[in-house]
# Entry
Amino acid sequence: MTPINIPEWQSLIRHYTDLKYTSMREEFALDSGRFKRFTIECDGLLLDYSKNRITKETIDKLIKLAKSVDMPNWIERMYSGEAINHTEDRAVLHIALRNRSNTPIMVDGEDVMPEINAVLAQMKRFCDQVHSGEWQGFSGKKMTDIVNIGIGGSDLGPAMICDALEPYEVEGMSVHFVSNVDGTDLSTTLEKLNPETTLFVVASKTFTTQETLTNAESARSWFLKSGSQQDVAKHFVAVSTNAKAVAEFGIDTDNMFEIWDWVGGRYSLWSAIGLPIALYTGMENFERLLDGGHAMDNHFRNQPLEKNMPVIMGMLGVWYVNFFGSQTHAIVPYDHSLARFPNHMQQLDMESNGKVTNREGQRISYKTGPVIWGTPGTNGQHAYFQLIHQGTQLIPVDFVLPVNSHYPESDHQSILLANGLAQSEALMKGKNAEEVRAELVKDGFEGEALEALLPHKVFPGNRPSNTLIFPKLTPEMLGKLVALYEHKVFVQGVVWNINSFDQWGVELGKQLAKVILPDLLEDDAQIGVHDSSTTNLIKMIRELRHD
Ligand code: F6P
# Structure
C-alpha cells in the first residue's frame, strides 16, 4: 500500500495548495471558537492544537486519510496481540504492561496478564526488601544507590522518568544511569559510590549488547575489589528476556526480572526495565505511572479519531512532514525536570519511524519520520529559537507546560509559563512590517536607518505548534504523556505503511564495530580490509594512543 496514491492523500495535496498562504493569525481573528474547536482533553491533559496551519477542512481530510489507511483496525490489531511487528514476528504489547484493568490479552493463544502481574509482584517484593533494609549488602548495610547499566531503551526511558519524578524519591535512595561504553560514564559514577551500599541493575532485553555487558563486567570488577564473588548476588540483579546469558554473566537468575520479546526496547520502561524507577520512587509511584499510561491507552482505543489525541498529533505530524516538507520536529518541555524527555522521544520516534522500506519490503518514495529534538524552555529560547522564528525551515514545536511546579519559587513558575505561551503566540502571529515600522518610529528611528533595520525585525509568523498543558507533573500525568507520544508514533507508522517496531538500521554499525575492534585491541595485528578512510583512521589511533 502506497499512501501517496490514495485519493485522500491526493486531496490533501490540493488542500495544501489552497491553504499554504492562509494565515493562522487571520483564522484566529475570524473564528472566536478556534481554541475550543481545536483542543482535546484526556483526564487533565489538554492538547491545544489551534496554533497549527489547519482549518476544519484540514482536520476532516486528515481524519479521512487516517480512516482510509484503516487506522481503527490497526489500533485493534495492536491491542489484540497480533504480530504486527511482522519482520520479527512479534506482537507489540507495551499496552499490556500497563493494562490496569487486567482484562486478558492473548499472545499465541495465551493470556499474558498473569506473567505481567507476577513480575510486578516480584518487583514490589524486591522494592519492599530494599527500602526496608531487609535486602542487605555484603557488609550488612542497607542499599542507598541504584546504578542502572543499560543503553537505548534500557536507559533513556527509566532515566528520563527518574529525573522527572525526583520529587517522589524514596528517602535515602539515589539512582544513577550508566549507558555509554566510554569509561568516563562508569568511572565518574563509581567514584562517588560505596560498593557496600550499591545495587547494580543490569538492564538489557537481549543481554548481548556490547556496551552494557562491558560496563557490567567493569562494574563487577570494581565491586570485587571490596566484596567477594559470592557477594555478587546481593549487589547485581538483571532485567532481561535472556536467562541463559544472565546466568552465564554470573547473576543469579533468582535475581532476574523477566521481560518478553513483545516489549520493544524503546517501549520497555513500563516493564521490569522500569525497576530503577520503582526502586527510586517506590512501587506505588511506578504503578501510578502505569495507571496514567493505561488512561491514555483507553483514550486511544475508544475515542473517535477526530477527538483522539494521539491520532490528531500523529496526523498533524504527517501534514507537516509530507505536505509542508518539514524535516524536524522540536519538543520543548517548560519543566526542567523533563530535560531528558526530548532524548527519550528521540529514540522512541526516530528508531521507530526512521524507515525507508514499507511493510511489503518496497523502497518508499515519500518522507517518513522527522528528526526529533529539543531541550527545556526557557533555555532553548536563548539558543535555537531564533531559527524556529526567522529561519528558512518550518519546524513544528510541541510545548509541554505543567501549570504548577514541585519547586515553587517566588514568581519563577509564572515567568516560565509566560515565556512558553509567548513563544507559541510569537511563532503563530509573527510581526509584520507595519508593526515593526510603528515600533521603530516610537523608538525614534526614521529615514534610511529605519528602512535598513525594518526587514531584520520582521517575523514571518504562521509557524505551527501544539501546547500540552496539565496541572502538575505527577506520575500519572507523566505516564499519559509518554503513552501519548508512543501512540502518536504508531499512528504515523500506520499512515506511512512502515513497521514502527523493528530497528534493523542499528545493526550494521554494531556488526562493523565487532570487525574493527580486533584492529584496535592489538597494535601489531594485521589490519582488516576496510575503505582507505577507515584503515588510515585505525593507523592514526594506533599511533596517537601511545602519545
Ligand atoms: O541498538 C538499538 C537497541 O537494540 C535498542 O532498540 C534497544 O533499546 C537498545 O539497543 C538496548 O538493547 P538491549 O536492551 O537488548 O541491551
